[in-house]
Amino acid sequence: MPKAWEKLDLQGAGVQSLQIRLQKLQKKSLWGYLYWCLSPFGAHRFYLEQSWAWVFPLVSVAILVLAFLGLTWEAVGLAVILCAVALWDLSRIGLWISAYNKALRKASWFAKQTPTAPANYQGRADNGEKPTQWQRELQDYTRTKESERAGHPAANAPAKKGFAPGQRRLSFAEQELLLAEMAKSPKSAVEKKPPDSAQK
After folding, report:
1. Which terminal CB of the chain, N or C, has fewer other CB atoms within 10 Å?
2. For residue range 75-119, what is the model confidence (pLDDT) as tens digits?
């Protein structure tokens, strides 16, 4: 879909409006990795709404406090642990984004529930009135469509098959059979029997 259509919000309740809202709410991989650069503050975990995000800034403050008090080895140990966890998070960001977006899509789709019928509703009532012209046309169209089956024409379809106007089109298998017969027959026979005369 072109970008211009993706940004055109029709403010309806259809699929297109839902997709636009989802695009705005979904987490982006680029932002997830950019926020990881601020991992000492836990920015990537806050962005992805992951648990224990508050631990990162707390440990960072603890490292600064230990370094200020002169406890260098303790500060270095905490920094190594923090870096190890940050590297592990880096390998999980893609999975977290996919899981978050999937859960968001499921919640959005299941939230679109069909309204229930009114109380004591028992179907459309037949009041015995004659249908209007548009209702008759709709009924005729519905009957025609319901009479059709996949690969079978309707009952009132033309019986003659071919490529000329007013003829019913050949199926794909029939066209292949016709082409095979034309390839096997001599050139003079093909010229005498054009494809428009194919019948079944």
Report:
1. N
2. 899 999 999 999 999 999 999 999 988 888 888 776 655 455 566
Non-local (6+) Cβ contacts of 87 within 8 A are none
Coil, strand or helix at 7 = helix
Q: Which residues pair with 161 in a beta bridge?
A: 168
For 11-40, how does the pLDDT look when each residue is reduced to its tens digit (9 = 90+)? 555 566 667 777 778 889 899 999 999 988
User: Residue 151: pLDDT above 60?
Assistant: no
Only one residue has tokens 């403050």, namely: 61
The pLDDT value recorded for residue 9 is: 54
- Which of 90, 100, 102, 101 lies closest to 50 in space, CA to CA? 100
Residue 112 and residue 69: Cα distance in Å, rounded?
57
> How would DSSP label each residue in 53-78?
TTHHHHHHHHHHHHHHTT-HHHHHHH
- Count other Cβ atoms within 10 Å, centred on residue 63: 20
Contacts of 135 (CB under 8 A, 6+ apart): none
What are the φ and ψ backbone dihedral angles of 54, each rounded to 5 degrees?
-70, -15
Q: Are 48 and 93 in contact (CB under 8 A)?
A: yes
Q: Determine if the pTM surpasses 0.70.
A: no
